[in-house]
Write a structure and sequence with these properties.
heterodimer; A: mainly alpha; rod-shaped; B: alpha+beta; 3-stranded antiparallel β-sheet; about 65% helix; globular
């Protein structure tokens, strides 16, 4: 990561590289690769400027630690809702991540919430839907209702569960909502697949 | 609550503050952070300034020139492009109008 030429021992250079790598990771998927590299280069240049200001020829580990302590923590590069001040939103999007649209500032939170809400709704639909379907089918003595409604709930929970998983992955498990979406998505997708397999085996 | 408002308010001003700093003359990243960090009430730091700098450069408002530094990696000097100057003037005008109106309004209320 580092391009510096100043005299530094391997261990002190490692301290700097480690900080720069952490900042790089904080910015990952939030800004384009080009911008990420430029931000990290600026931080690296600042570290060496501040080391230079200390006025010594060779920099000790303590010098480097003192300079790093003066910098913003890497979390400061996160958007505010994820614990930092975060970069200001971009007018032009930095290009989509394969398979997902690149979330802007706040986009992650919205996607995570969508994933969580979808997971919970699918869970509620499945838990309440099957008994209700059964009750209605028995009350009306209709096997067709059981097949149509049950099949419908099965299809919706399969698609919804898979969608909740995809959304949770897209926002990289940004918060509790996304984790809820992932867990409920996996749970109900697996349950729906199992139920589908059971029905198919029973019918054929 | 007030802290949050202040944070949001300051964040909205970073771009204008960065442009105003560069409008004073070509300068490099760390110098901008130093200057904006010293302004009372603003105190912007690198995690706020550098992302804005790179975005402004990407949007064509800043031109970059690289020069060797006495302190390690090359310095990236920023200056306003013609688009950048126009953008800065528009933002500055807008800020002056808003600031004047709101100041008068607040004065009348207190």
């Amino acid at each position: 990561m580092s391009v510096a030429t100043t005299d530094l021992s391997r261990s002190t250079q490692h301290l700097i590289d480690s900080r720069l790598d952490t900042i790089d990771r904080m910015l990952l998927w939030r800004v384009s690769r080009q911008e990420r590299l430029e931000i990290v280069r600026e931080v690296e240049a600042q570290i060496f400027e501040q080391l230079h200001e200390r006025g010594t020829e060779e920099f000790s580990r303590d010098d480097v630690l003192a300079v790093l302590a003066r910098l913003d923590p890497p979390e400061a590069y996160l958007p505010e809702e994820e614990g930092g001040l975060g970069p200001v939103p971009s007018r032009r999007s930095p290009g989509p991540r394969p398979g997902c649209t690149e979330p802007g500032r706040g986009g992650n939170t919205r996607i995570a919430k969508a994933s969580g809400v979808l997971g919970v709704v699918i869970m509620a639909l499945t838990i309440l839907g099957y008994p209700l379907t059964y009750v209605v089918a028995v009350a009306l003595n209709s096997e067709a209702i059981l097949i149509v409604l049950g099949g419908g709930i099965l299809a919706v929970s399969l698609v919804g569960g898979a969608l909740a998983i995809v959304l949770a992955a897209c926002c990289r498990l940004a918060n509790g909502w996304a984790i809820t979406g992932l867990v409920t998505g996996i749970l109900w997708t697996c349950m729906s697949l199992g139920l589908s397999a059971f029905v198919v085996l029973e019918l054929f | 609550m007030l802290d949050r408002w202040e944070t949001q308010f300051r964040k909205g001003l970073v771009e204008l503050a960065v442009l105003a700093t560069i409008a004073r003359g070509e300068t490099y990243g760390y110098r901008i952070v130093e200057q904006l960090g010293a302004l009372e009430g603003l105190q912007f730091t690198e995690s706020t300034v550098y992302p804005v700098l790179t975005r402004l450069a990407r949007d064509g408002y800043l031109a970059i020139r690289t020069e060797p530094s006495p302190a390690g990696p090359p310095r990236r000097y920023y200056r306003l492009t013609t688009d950048g100057q126009r953008h800065f003037r528009r933002m500055a005008e807008s800020w002056k109008t808003i600031s004047r109106s709101l100041s008068g309004w607040i004065e009348g209320a207190s």
